[in-house]
Amino acid sequence: MTVYSGPVFDMAVQQFGVIANHLSIPMDERERILMPKRAITVSCPIHRDDGSITVFEGYRVQHHLTMGPTKGGTRFAPSVDIGEVAALAIWMSWKCALAGLPYGGAKGGVRVDPASISKRELEGLSRRYMQEMIPFVGPHTDVMAPDMGTNEQVMAWFMDTYSMYHGRTVTEIVTGKPVSSGGTLGRREATGRGVAYLARRVMKDLDIAFDGATAVVQGFGNVGSQAALELYNSGVKVIAVGDHTGALYDRKGLDIPALMRHAAAHGSIAGYSNQLHYDPAAILTVPCDVLVPAAVERVIDAHVAENLKCRVLAEGANGPTTPEADLILEKRQREIFLIPDILCNSGGVVVSYFEWVQDLQQLFWEEEEVMRREYQILDRAFDQMVRRAKKDNIPHRTAAMALGVEKVRAAKTTRGLFP
Using CA atoms, how far apart are residues 296 and 318, in angstroms rounded to an integer? Predict the structure, then answer.
């Protein structure tokens, strides 16, 4: 029996089972590696603008603290539940280990639709959530970051709430903050930049010229829009994008800077054009050179995987591909080069690590230095994944996750079991 349930958690368990079998991990070791160390559920009551009180449910899951503090985002979304949060924390552990960061994985969230509350209510909810988490987090215990439905402003409220409680400014308690509040240059763009950087690297390896190449981006939030912009600036035509409000398609290529300005002003791509509408359900199977799923989990199922028409699949979202779809992609690996999520979108946590280090040292870097170090770590992890995949004749996801799981397992084995 477990408190964790749901399709996303089941998917994380299934993926780990594949890796554990590949690594021949004894059965009596598996639960210790997989199951989260700690899960917290809190009630977050706030005063609404009309004078009423509403209670929102919040969560935080810390997967393991064997290699250092836990690290992970906090999402505000109506679909958030403890199973989803636990799965995301588990994936973050493998991601941090693969990148060589001194972190375990964590994730948090509040079950709320941010569009349904005012800015004042959002501030109240953000501060109450952090207040409830104070006994369980800290710069050397658990460091939060933004995720779907949260942003730099929410991180600033988190940091201020924690700092007021401790009577001093503690910038290193969260990452993804505004630069004016101890954030790092390049953090907002880091995840999308990393997705585009790795996609371009694979395109070079496959001799796909940037000029004239095409890309499709599903999800036009921070990650998807930044990845689209980076590809656009490289000469790649972004022919289709989609978000929760719909999809747009133009075979000549969309004007990504103009679309980003529209989305920033209106909160989505809705209303950008009446002539370019496209079926959102079909966007993932549009023929293209690069496909970037950058929205939510489990969007590429077996049916979609059978019908993908891309050459490079760069997973910007966490868990966008189901295990059933992975079996199909394994058969199609000569056609489709997969950059799995725990590598492809790891630029965000890499630069969050840089922000944490800079806050601890009170010594800040120029953006060029941040980008250089980010790409260096992504290149190293990419090379390790490709070598492992070729050596063991396994898919890229299996290779990437095996590298991460091996590091976590080795750390737990070395430290032993207390008491």
Answer: 7
